[in-house]
Amino acid sequence: MLYYKKRLPYLTFSLGFLGVIFCTAGLVGVWSVGSRLTQSTENVFERIDESMVAVQERVVKAQNALRDRKSRPKTLNKV
Question: Which ranges in the chain belong to alpha helices (H)?
Fold first, then answer.
């Protein structure tokens, strides 16, 4: 029993130290994944923004075409 009492502080310190090492490794892993996720999210939203700009340009073209069509004289349709 005396043997275990002498070794217990070393075992406790070793397990605590391993816990700190694993927690640090986990934090580094989460930071790395978070950085990649942030970059991917920025790329996705950039593409969405570009798509929205393209759609907005098409809407303006369609509105202009509709306005031009409405401004034509109606006599052309009766030919």
Answer: 2-71
- End-to-end Cα, the chain, rounded Å: 112
What is the pTM for the complete model shown?
Answer: 0.51
Measuring CA to CA, how many Å separate 64 from each of 39, 52, 68, 78? 38, 18, 6, 23
Tokens, residue 28: 């580094």
Q: Residue 34 corresponds to which tokens in the numbers above?
A: 């978070």
Centre a 10 Å sphere on the Cβ of residue 75 and count the other Cβ atoms it contains: 7
Query: CA-CA distance, 8 to 1, in Å (whole number)?
Result: 11
Q: Which amino acid is at 28?
A: V
pLDDT, one tens digit per residue, over 14-62 is 999 999 999 999 999 999 888 889 999 999 999 999 999 999 999 999 9
